[in-house]
Design brief:
By secondary structure, the protein is α/β, with parallel strands linked by helices. It is built from 16 helices and 10 strands. It is globular and about 55 Å long.
Amino acid sequence: MPTRAQIERIENLIERYLDVVHSERNQRNLKRWKSPYNWNRDMWRGIPAERTGPVPFTVAPDNSLWNRLIGINFVSYYSDPCYHVESQLRMKLFHAEHFSDNTPFTDELWIWFGVVTELSLFGCEVEFMEHKEPWIRRSGLPPGISAEELEAPDFKKSGVMPRVHEFYESVREVSKGRLRVMFPDFVRGPFCLLVHILGFTNALYALMDSPEWVHRLMQYFVNGTKSWVKERNIFLGDTIRPCRLYEDEIDCPTISPRIYDQMVFPYEADLARHCGGVSYWHSCGNTTAFMKSIKHLPGLQMFHVGPYTSYAEADRIFGDEVCIEICLNPQKDVLEADTETMRNKIRDIKNVCRHGNYTIRIDGLMPHGKVQEDLEKIKQWCWIAQEELAAR
């Protein structure tokens, strides 16, 4: 049960946060993006509403930097619903005060336990840490297990789901209807699940030595995702929406385009057809070699271009059809960069991406130097981005 002091702090934070939501600056930012704005997790992303005005840009510190900036303890954050709400509101308010980017703020609260959320559903053992994202202590499946032996994850009982449901009820209670509470989506793609549940080395060996077994496992992950999404929609009275595919383990030369086409794409396409499209495809790896194939995912709306992927090639391949989210290298392009380097990077993107169907982002911002120096670097980048992206 929340204490009186917790309730008072949360009510005060909600009041301050709603002032931000209704502010003129935030209303301008909201107009920069296509709706709906709900993201159902942290690190909000969106598709620009138009290509004639300034290019919108966003900033998203990593949890390890939030720990340094405002002292959030992430063991408490992922175990105490009231602390989760209080810390989330503090992050949003700090963001609004210090970062002059185009991240929109809405009357929503998320519940999100990080990358481990979906991995835990398939047997991965989760470890929570005070200063950063949770991770997995142990992979979920031993090599060679029969996919036919495996059951779909239980929407209420598997992995962190009991905690998710507890948080959902508690956060709704303490927010008292003033903010909408978003239930998590299933966003990890089938290859991400394969790699983490087997372990990276085991997964790569299996791709070479036991491809038929991998095919059965990939279908098991797809079926498990569909089952979980169906139960989510029944629970919320919701309808199916285009999926998001977070596939950070897809990288060349870790896997080849042939392996992607044969062993991964068919299962991503299966989910895309089932969900009515893909709203967002993500990998921070080098995905240049896979873009021609990824473009053919049914209903693809936005593609993530990480620091190691060619934004020139992404603009050429996706053109007017798919928005590209260009994410810079947080160390090289921001925290270690001088003002000239920052400007030149943004100018190069503007010169190269002729279709104009893009947004620019910095995330994965981890502690680099003294926390105040890191903060000033991020602010500096925001000011330069504002200036450089003001006109197309």
